């Protein structure tokens, strides 16, 4: 439970708000009952029920997006109704709701919920003693919403930037190893669920150290970028390329069965062979290929592809080896 709270920001906010709502709203619900305001009492109880429902849904299904939306709608509509029923004292409840909707839903959705709440409250008009009070309420509610909106947008952009920095290789712009671990785990899960074929190709530039030593790291960097550009231009939109480390890349090919895989890899090998050039001429690449097997883990899948790559290197480089194939079935370069 603590692990989920620590790792899921929106779930922790939903739980915290649910707890605050129970502690904050329950005494007022009792007060309304004692005062004989049964309508306000029923509304308070409905708010608590809505909050409990949204929190239960979030914990049960992990769907914090819908639970957050439900909670934001329940809380703001509850605050609008209470404000309209009890006037001044009820008005203040809308302010925490205006801020928390930005924690519960995306910024534009929260903005829509908040502006609708303010408009409905002003349209009904019953919550206000005078026009001046109504317009003061509108102005302060809009200031609070605008500030929270700007803060939420900045926060979202910074989070996206951090996610980008954490998952993209800065030199080549392809996904890094951290992102690869996640995607391979998802590919294995999808294979178990749907049976979709998943193939993995590890590509490693041959004698890259010599290229660096002879022509410098800038030339080496350019070759890495050229290889990435070639692969990107000749693979499908849903194929994914990752930088595994140094001059080694992993290509994940979903939906390519064992038969089609041979021609896909042969085609890739042909393209790279024809176009990848350095100052000293042609640059060769070795390939290790493994098709995901039933019940296999990511580690074992990667290890089989890696062993195939080692065999390609051992056999003289510049060739494709399929994991579990006999050595004679490797695909050396003919030209
Ligand atoms: N230019 C450049 N070089 C890199 C980068 N990352 C790793 N390298 C170099 O890649 C080279 C890898 O060398 P090795 O692991 O010996 O492999 P290799 O020379 O390609 O030999 P084989 O793989 O056996 O054909 C090292 O010289 C690293 O310094 C990078 O981002 N840019």
How does this structure look, described?
- With 335 residues, this protein is an alpha+beta fold.
- It has two domains: 166 residues, no CATH class; 156 residues, Reverse transcriptase/Diguanylate cyclase domain (Alpha-Beta Plaits, 2-Layer Sandwich), CATH 3.30.70.270.
- It has 13 helices and eight strands.
- The longest helix has 37 residues.
- It is elongated.
- The site of guanosine-5'-triphosphate has 16 residues, from strand 1, helix 10 and helix 11.
- One of its GO terms (molecular function) is diguanylate cyclase activity.
- It catalyses: 2 GTP = 3',3'-c-di-GMP + 2 diphosphate.
- This is diguanylate cyclase.
- Its cofactor is Mg(2+).
- Keywords: Membrane, Transmembrane, Transmembrane helix.
> Quaternary arrangement of the chains shown?
single chain
Please give the order of strands in the largest beta sheet.
2-3-1-6-7-8
Bound molecules: guanosine-5'-triphosphate
Number of helices: 13
Overall mean pLDDT stands at 92
- Encode the helix/strand succession as letters: HHHHHHHHHEHHEEHEEEHEE
Q: pLDDT below 50 for ≥5 consecutive residues: which ranges?
A: none
What would the principal axes of the Cα set say about the shape?
A: elongated
Report the span from N to C terminus: 60 Å
Strand content: 5-15%
Which class of secondary structure composition applies to the elements? alpha+beta
Strands, total number? 8
Estimate nothing, just give the exact number of structural domains. 2
Rg (C-alpha, Å): 30 Å
> Percentage of helical residues?
55-70%
Largest β-sheet summary: 6 strands, mixed
